[in-house]
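Let's practice the habit of predicting before peeking. Look at the sequence and jot down your guess about where helices and strands might fall. Then scroll down.
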Amino acid sequence: MRRAIDDHGSAPVEFVLVGTLVTLVALSVLQVALALHVRSTLIDAAAEGARHAALADSSLAAGVERSRDLITTALGPAYARMVAATTSEYGGAPVVVVTVRAPLPLIGMAGLDETLEVSGRAAIEPRG
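Done guessing? Here is the structure:
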């Protein structure tokens, strides 16, 4: 009696199909981790730039430059192109706000320009 369906040789095909799916899921997880790392690095650089600009003997331009230096060192110059600093109020206190617009990495480090926006705030030291 012969079987109606012969599954001889199906193991290599199943291995390729499952291996492809597992590889795709693993690469997707790594890409999300990279995007989160870039976002965290940009937030930290924006906050550090705001703290630097908020010092009594500093300026907004110095805070922008500090953020650019940190971003360029950590991620590269493509991520440090759009950095701006302004003053504002937060909870009734004067603050410096440093905003960074950068590419969101979609495939490796390549991504769409200015799709990721983060900002950091710091209370302004009184000048005296």
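How did you do? The chain has one domain: 10-123.
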